[in-house]
Write a structure and sequence with these properties.
180 residues; 2 domains; 8-stranded mixed beta sheet; 4-stranded antiparallel beta sheet; 2 helices; disordered N terminus
């Protein structure tokens, strides 16, 4: 599973019962959580190794843990053709503007087919590696934040259609697996 670079929120829970710990771990594994278990003895981390002359040496009789700190987090959702429109952020690359954009987008539709036509007039074509978007509005789009790379300043006061492309790997999701 690919985990995005943004660090997910980490949760901590202290367990004093090993059976309850194992039950909690199993539930988290079923939800694809990243799990770390830290054995503790009276609130301090249990040492199983110690440093001797620059080498790690296993302690013969380590203290038996009487509690466990469970740390877990949920990785972010990988963006694909099914979920690119849900809570994503990214910078799109301009392919074409105005009349040229219309012409190129018609060619894309002929080749790949139209994936989605929004009520606001934006149109989408998805491919194996990314999405083409034909639209006259960018920035906050529904639950997404989509920008155009090197946006031409002369277009600030004009309503113009852009054809832009972004790879799925360049879209960052803010939705974690536990929110599905």
């Amino acid at each position: 599973m690919n985990i995005q670079k943004k660090a997910p929120k980490e949760y901590k829970r202290l367990h004093k019962n090993e059976k309850a710990l194992n039950s909690h771990v199993e539930r988290l594994k079923n939800r694809n959580a990243d799990i770390q278990i830290i054995p503790l003895f009276n609130g301090k981390k249990v040492k199983t190794f110690e440093e001797k002359e620059g080498m790690k040496v296993r302690i013969k009789n380590p203290q038996k843990p009487n509690e466990w700190e469970l740390r877990y987090s949920f990785p972010f959702v990988n963006v694909n053709a099914e979920n690119y429109h849900i809570k994503t952020t990214g910078t799109w690359k301009i392919i074409a503007v105005r009349n040229n954009a219309t012409k190129k987008f018609k060619e894309l539709i002929a080749k790949h087919g139209l994936n989605y036509n929004s009520s606001s007039g934006s149109k989408y074509v998805t491919t194996k590696i990314g999405i083409y978007r034909y639209s006259d509005h960018w920035g906050s789009v529904a639950s997404c934040n989509w920008r155009i790379e090197n946006y031409p300043k002369w277009l600030d006061k004009q309503k113009a259609y852009f054809l832009a492309f972004i790879k799925y790997t360049d879209l960052k999701s803010s939705k974690r697996l536990d929110e599905i």
